[in-house]
Amino acid sequence: MRKLVMSCAACALALTAGIAGATGLDGDGSSGLGAQMDERRVDIKGGVFFPPMILASAGEVITIRNEEDVVHDATAIDGSWTTGPIQPGAVAEVTVGADMILCFKSTYNEEYKGAFGSVESGEAPECFELSGAGDGSNDGQN
Asked: Which pLDDT does position 130 carry in this prediction?
């Protein structure tokens, strides 16, 4: 019986620690979520930039993380800026400029598209086109 009580106590402790970790609660009772929320990040995964659009102001640094098994980059649709190659598992940073082209793609796979949207309006730039969204035409072919 004593072993069962000790096992249950150990399970309860492990469960409590797991819940605290999942909720971001630190040992002092404060939330550890702030640091995670502060990171401005776009992931390359599953055949897309995710999220496809992130709201950003001029001067903000956005991290782009490649979670795929092949090299990608983020390059302005007009080629005016690029992260350069981002190896699998690596990250690159982009500082959003006031006058920069806000839509980007991967030159390694041009179906991957993303954009920096306006924090003020919450809107996407005019150049934005979702990955795999097509041109809107439907010619009846599959």
From this structure: 75
Residue showing tokens 């993380």: 65
> In sequence order, which residues have a C-beta less than 8 Å from that of residue 130 and are 6 or more positions away?
52, 113
Pairing label, strands 103-106, 75-76: antiparallel
| Cα–Cα distance for residue pair 59/43, rounded to 1 Å | 20
> Above 90 in pLDDT, residue 94?
yes
Beta bridge partners of 104: 76, 114
Provide the whole-model pTM.
0.66
Q: Which residues, listed in sequence order, are joined to residue 102 by a DSSP beta bridge?
A: none
3 state SS for 13-63: HHHHHHHHHHHCECCCCCECHHHHHHCCEEEEECCEEECCEEEECCCCEEE
Contact, 101 vs 77, CB < 8 A? yes
Alpha-carbon gap, residue 16 to 94, rounded angstroms: 39
pLDDT at 141: 39
- What pLDDT, in 10s, does the model give residues 50-86? 999 999 999 999 999 999 999 999 999 999 999 999 9
